[in-house]
Design goal:
Helices cover about 65% and strands about 0% of the residues. The chain is built from one helix and no strands.
């Protein structure tokens, strides 16, 4: 079993997690804008 006594808070490298979250937020925000634009277009053409 691993010894967890040598862990000190704040020393973990989280650059990968930060980049993943940044990409996720970019995708979600662009997706939301796309859905809103599609809904507005549908409303304008009386779909």
């Amino acid at each position: 079993m691993a010894n967890h006594n040598d862990y000190t808070p704040g020393n973990m490298d989280i650059r990968t997690q930060e980049k993943t979250f940044e990409n996720f937020m970019w995708f979600v925000s662009r997706g939301a804008v796309l859905v809103i634009c599609i809904l507005i277009f549908m409303a304008l053409v009386n779909a």
